[in-house]
Design a protein that fits this description.
- The complex is a heterodimer.
- By secondary structure, chain A is an alpha+beta fold.
- Chain A folds into two domains: 2-44 and 314-443, no CATH class; 53-211 and 245-300, no CATH class.
- Chain A has 13 helices and 15 strands.
- In chain A, strands 1, 3, 4, 7, 8, 9, 10, 11, 12, 14 and 15 form an eleven-stranded mixed beta sheet that branches. Chain A has a two-stranded antiparallel sheet with strand order 2-13.
- In chain A, strand 5 and strand 6 form a beta hairpin.
- In chain A, helix 1 (2-11) packs across helix 12 (360-401) and helix 12 runs antiparallel to helix 13 (412-443).
- The radius of gyration of chain A is 31 Å and the shape is elongated.
- The model of chain A is unreliable at 213-260 (pLDDT under 50).
- Chain B contains nine helices and nine strands.
- In chain B, the strands form two sheets. Chain B has a five-stranded parallel beta sheet with strand order 6-7-8-3-9, sandwiched between helices. In chain B, strands 2-1-4-5 form a four-stranded antiparallel beta sheet, with helices on one face.
- In chain B, helix 3 crosses helix 5, helix 3 (100-110) packs parallel to helix 7 (150-162) and helix 7 runs parallel beside helix 8.
- The longest helix of chain B has 18 residues, at 180-197.
- The model of chain B has no long low-confidence stretch (mean pLDDT 84).
- The chains are: A alpha+beta, B alpha/beta.
- Chain A binds chain B through residues 7-8, 10-11, 348-349, 352-361, 444-446, and chain B through 45, 48-49, 52, 54-55, 74-75, 78-79, 81-83, 87, 89, 92-98, 106-107, 109-111, 144, 160, 172.
Chain lengths: 449, 228
């Protein structure tokens, strides 16, 4: 019966091929949308693991999360070092990591932070950061930098290389900090998160390059020193407020070295990652941060902010999924049309088959088998298309969005989806098959055309 | 054993007022060929359908190879038909997307009996049959049926009816699409092959010029008491 169906379909291979293509595209689309969504969620969720609270200047929690964890956009006006010290001294806080942002290195976000970042940051369900080469910076060398795996791979950097950063977060910037170069001390092992795309420098180093930039700012007639012109993003502008404060940076020299663990105390920072001793205290601390009178701060629970983000993207996701299933429906209808349209011209063929002993049931089965073959071929084609598409887009997605789809094996849910589509194909084929069954019974061996 | 025995057959199409078929008695002996003639639309095809078990006939009225056709149910009739009966139609006898050879072998895929009786090598038997019917060119056997001429198609159909030695061959105006010369040659060939295979042949046509090829001829209008 299968051989028969194959021969019959081969006889109509052009239309059959188009049908298979339609089903294949819809399968690829359905699975692709799901994978993209899962990939995005996984990669986002992995990036934010291990952080109990993100404290940043008052702002939207999604924006704070995006800026601090994923290096997309920026946070509001910088928070004071006093607030950081206040946070760090809270009894419920186990650790606090200061974060400075706003620069980029050839499009990759530059993060100013201290060595505690590498100690406390966790990704992919609790894994600590590890080095592929070199060493973490300790605080001795102000011009040390640690780079993410992708930065190293894309730009061909190894420990010892000297890099120069640019102001702002755009990829193209003329405002290079070429007077404040950094020396790469270490390259991180790949994490599959936004960290792969980040460049980490010391707090001191981050401040130094901005302190030196302040000099040309004093000359308003020098166009090269006008920093605002090439910054499209609001986040970049926010940093200028921080720069202004660098003028009196030297006044804080007497504070340096008084705090254990922080060799350099910047005037203002953009965010703080906080880990708690007991995570059940997180809401209490969040309230305390939000109510701190001296500094307008927001405390963001990463999980809550992520849920908010999914709430925003949910509508688009649903629309995409709806579209994918609509394409699948169109593919199924195309198959029913193809099978039905040929029935009249095949009546003779069915009569011949009956004359040589095929029961109406077998002819019914022939049609269902043809549909099964078409659907199965569509599924296979869809998986091939998806694999090829993943293979082609994976480097682009991971470079642009830090999103890794991977050529993963099929999960239970995907198999369920495939099974559902297959069943839908069989179900759809019942329409022409029942028609054929009735027709062959009525026609018998002689077709009155 | 009679390949075909009809007794007191009365058949009426569902919804029709009068009987289409009313046949007192008609039978064929093994190896016998019968020419049944009558004008178009007089019920000849209905009779063939009744013998082939496609329409419901009363019990006891038609026996093919001593099996009461009326006593068999749907699917069993289809299987019984392929076991005992080979059929040739007017035109379009072949499945277009199968090769000539595969068309000949079709009864063997649906019937164990026909397959067994076609010998150890059904494909070889099919080739031999095609050869005897004048389709010796091996390239013809592998050609899709849709690329064959009408005359070639009818000969492939004859080979298909003959393979596996069924007891009865039903031919429904198989020559109507052929020209005069091809007609006579085809009928001659068919009658001879049936005789060789020991199969009874019931040949239905409106063309009385073919009658002399057969053992006997029967006027359908005289046989049938019903009206079409």
């Amino acid at each position: 019966m299968l051989r028969f169906s194959l021969r019959s379909l081969w006889n109509r291979r052009f239309v059959a091929g188009l049908t298979v293509l339609a089903i294949g595209l819809s399968v690829a689309l359905i699975l692709g949308v799901e994978r993209l969504r899962d990939g995005a969620r996984d990669s986002f969720a992995n990036s934010a693991s291990g952080i109990d609270l993100i404290v940043a200047p008052r702002g939207n929690s999604v924006q704070i999360l995006m800026a601090t964890v994923f290096g997309v956009g920026g946070t509001g006006t910088g928070m004071t070092w006093d607030s950081f010290e206040w946070l760090e001294d809270r009894p419920e806080v186990a650790w606090a990591v200061p974060i400075q942002m706003g620069d980029n290195h050839r499009g990759y976000p530059v993060i100013g932070t201290d060595a505690s970042y590498f100690e406390h940051f966790r990704h992919s369900g609790g894994k600590p950061l590890s080095l592929a080469a070199g060493s973490f910076y300790t605080g001795d060398a102000a011009d040390a930098a640690v780079i993410g795996a992708e930065v190293a791979a894309r730009l061909g950097y190894a420990p010892g290389a000297v890099i120069v950063n640019a102001h702002g977060s755009g990829e193209v910037s003329f405002d290079l900090h070429d007077d404040a170069p950094f020396t790469i001390s270490g390259v991180l092992a790949p994490t599959g998160t936004a960290v792969d795309r980040m460049v980490f420098v010391t707090l001191e180093g981050f401040d130094t390059l901005h302190a030196q930039e302040d000099a040309p700012l004093a000359d308003p007639l020098d166009p090269a020193a006008m920093p605002a012109d090439d910054h499209g993003e609001d986040g970049a502008h926010d940093d200028h407020d921080a720069h202004d404060a660098h003028d009196d940076h030297e006044d804080h020299g007497d504070h340096e070295g008084t705090e254990a663990g922080h060799g350099h105390e910047p005037d203002r920072i953009n965010a703080v990652y906080v880990g708690l001793i007991d995570r059940t205290n997180v809401l209490g601390l969040q309230r305390a941060v939000n109510e701190r009178p001296s500094d307008a701060l927001s405390a963001v629970l990463p999980a809550v902010a992520l849920a908010e983000l999914w709430g925003i993207t949910g509508t688009a996701e649903r629309a995409m999924r709806l579209m994918a299933w609509a394409v699948a429906l169109a593919g199924m209808i195309g198959m029913v049309v193809m099978l039905s349209a040929t029935l009249d011209t095949r009546r003779r063929e069915f009569a011949i088959l009956r004359s040589v002993g095929a029961t109406p049931g077998r002819i019914f089965a022939l049609i269902v088998t043809e549909a099964a073959v078409l659907t199965a071929a569509g599924l296979v084609l869809g998986l091939v298309l998806l694999t090829v598409a993943t293979f082609v887009t994976d480097p682009i997605l991971s470079a642009r969005f830090g999103l890794r789809l991977g050529l993963n094996v099929f999960g239970a849910r995907e198999l369920t989806t495939l099974f559902l589509i297959f069943c839908a194909g069989l179900l759809a084929s019942l329409v022409p098959a029942v028609r054929v069954y009735r027709m062959t019974l009525a026609d018998g061996l002689s077709v009155r055309l | 054993m009679h390949p075909l025995r009809i007794e007191r057959l009365v058949y009426r199409w569902p919804g029709a007022e009068r009987s289409t078929l009313e046949i007192g008695a008609l039978s064929l002996a093994s190896g016998e060929s019968l020419f049944l003639y009558g004008p178009s639309g007089c019920g000849k095809s209905t009779l063939l359908s009744a013998i082939a078990g496609v329409v419901d006939v009363p019990k006891g009225s038609i026996r093919v190879a001593d099996q009461d056709i009326g006593a068999l149910r749907g699917g069993a009739r289809d299987r019984f038909r392929v076991d005992q009966v080979g059929m040739i139609f007017q035109v379009f006898n072949l499945v277009p997307w199968l090769s000539a050879l595969e068309n000949v072998l079709l009864p063997c895929t649906f019937s164990q009996r026909r397959c067994k009786r076609a010998g150890d090598d059904p494909a070889g038997t099919a080739r031999r049959l095609l050869d005897e019917l004048g389709l010796s060119d091996p390239s013809l056997a592998s050609k899709p049926a849709s690329e064959l001429s009408v005359g070639q198609q009818q000969r492939v159909a004859a080979a298909r009816a003959l393979i596996g030695k069924p007891d009865l061959i039903l031919a429904d105006e198989p020559t109507s699409a052929l020209d005069e010369a091809a007609k006579a040659a085809f009928v001659d060939l068919l009658a001879r092959e049936c005789a060789e295979a020991g199969a009874a042949l019931l040949f239905v046509s409106h063309d009385r010029s073919l009658e002399h090829h057969f053992d006997r001829g029967v006027d359908f209008l005289a046989l049938n008491g019903g009206a079409a």
